[in-house]
Specification:
The complex is a heterodimer of chains A (113) and B (110).
Chain A lengths: L3 E4 L2 E4 L5 E7 L5 E7 L6 E7 L2 E4 L7 E4 L5 E6 L8 E8 L8 E2 L3 E5 L1
Chain B lengths: L2 E3 L4 E5 L4 E3 L2 E3 L5 E7 L6 E5 L10 E2 L10 E3 L8 E8 L7 E3 L3 E6 L1
Parallel strand pairs in B: 2-11
Antiparallel strand pairs in B: 1-4, 3-8, 5-6, 5-9, 7-8, 9-10, 9-11
Chain lengths: 113, 110
């Protein structure tokens, strides 16, 4: 089945230790998104890629970076995780046609010790 | 500023009762509205979008531009409808971004 895959599903890191979350897709969609979702809050868009074009949200901290080496893969790098970065991180994809539906991965839950 | 408001964090109804999950939005242009659902331990998935004007799993939603609302309705709730529901707005200008509401947890009681 074509889908959006996120690895790992759970990630534990230490305060200040860099961590990378990965997302892959078999949908061949050209737009990929990263969201942060904290408990009882709405998913918050961090950034998105339109093909290779990176689009950062104005309020996304510099601590968060992303890479998209090819159409299928996208990575979220947190350079120096703080306790406040503990959250669920959602990857989503969409295709550039009309008003796009977004397809979500299962998410990676990040715990910062 | 663009905003999506879901006033109820939790909505409990009995099986067979009507359901209405409220969604109000603030947007100056012509938005595209969506409802996403997340069942227990599953990923977020599209339930319906206003542009399709369709009924999915018995749910419907009508965009009311006068009241800036996009409420989700179902005449007879089923236990399997218990889930987290998110209303989302997409700017129709082609930026491909969503603004999500904070979600409403629906519990359908037997």
């Amino acid at each position: 089945d074509a889908m959006v895959i996120q690895n790992p599903r759970y990630q534990v890191t230490q305060f200040g230790k860099p961590v990378t979350l990965s997302c892959s897709q078999t949908l061949n969609h050209n737009v990929m998104y990263w969201y942060q979702q904290k408990s009882s809050q709405a998913p918050k868009l961090l950034f998105h890629y339109y093909d290779k074009d990176f689009n950062n949200e104005a309020d996304t901290p510099d601590n968060f970076q992303s890479r998209r080496p090819n159409t299928s893969f996208c990575f979220l790098d947190i350079r120096s995780p703080g306790l406040g970065d503990a959250a669920m991180y959602l990857c989503a994809t969409s295709r550039e046609t009309g008003v796009p539906t977004q397809y979500f991965g299962p998410g990676t839950r990040l715990l910062v010790l | 500023a663009q905003r999506v408001t879901q006033p109820e964090k939790l909505l409990s109804v009995f099986k067979g009762a009507p359901v209405e999950l409220k969604c109000n939005y603030s947007y100056s242009g012509s938005p595209e509205l969506f409802w996403y659902v997340q069942y227990s331990r599953q990923r977020l998935q599209l339930l319906l979008r206003h542009i399709s004007r369709e009924s999915i799993k018995g749910f419907t939603a009508d965009l009311n531009k006068g009241e800036t609302s996009f409420h989700l309705k179902k005449p007879f709730a089923q236990e399997e409808d218990s889930a987290m529901y998110y209303c989302a707005l997409s700017e129709a200008s082609g930026t491909y971004k969503y603004i999500f509401g904070t979600g409403t947890r629906l519990k359908v009681l037997a």
